[in-house]
Amino acid sequence: xxxxxxxxxxxxxxxxxxxxxxxxxxxxxxxxxxxxxxxxxxxxxxxxxxxxxxxxxxxxxxxxxxxxxxxxxxxxxxxxxxxxxxxxxxxxxxxxxxxxxxxxxxxxxxxxxxxxxxxxxxxxxxxxxxxxxxxxxxxxxxxxxxxxxxxxxxxxxxxxxxxxxxxxxxxxxxxxxxxxxxxxxxxxxxxxxxxxxxxxxxxxxxxxxxxxxxxxxxxxxxxxxxxxxxxxxxxxxxxxxxxxxxxxxx
Length: 250
Prior knowledge:
The chain is an alpha/beta fold and 250 residues long. It has a single domain (36-248), classed as Vaccinia Virus protein VP39 (Rossmann fold, 3-Layer(aba) Sandwich). It has helices at 5-23, 25-34, 43-46, 64-72, 85-95, 133-138, 155-158, 178-185, 211-220, and strands at 54-58, 77-81, 101-104, 107-108, 113-120, 144-153, 168-172, 194-200, 223-233, 239-248. Strand 9 (223-233) and strand 10 (239-248) form a beta hairpin. Helix 2 packs across helix 5. One of its GO terms (biological process) is methylation. This is FkbM family methyltransferase.
């Protein structure tokens, strides 16, 4: 019996990613030493932003995105935010010797507080919003397995306006908490040329803002869509989520 076409495609994509990771020395080291695989799917997109001098990476997890950003923007300062201790320790083991990378062990939101995070069976799917049934159905293994109390800060609590060298990139991958995280960045948004955010078309986390709401919110603040990438579809071929690139209107 042969494998389904979707499984064959999945195997092929994973093999290509592994080959790409192993071909870059820093990525290979991060994978072998910390089990952190660079997010290679972002490299072509980040190439258009390679002149960025400052990157804010909200929802850093183990450093997957930061590895891609460092490869594409070798001279940029990177400030990453990750509130969960386990992934944060992995991140520090990957970037502990990089003087241009700083980790803040907090989430970003509209106010400074301690809050409950819903921990997923896959920690990169954990969220400050309850994990919905649709999320665990579409992505098996991401159901909630517990909760924990974490620190939440506004971006301005951790990064000063003078620290953000232009052109700058703001990246968010926060599992449904995108709008609240953006509200926590609002006082510094004017300093960013690019915003790169994962947005959903269906409710994966209870109460999350949909892509249309985030697009409208950013449009009101002077950002327009520059591209939509890495589209994920459900079994019925309906769009589930994608990575959106926004650029400041000149």
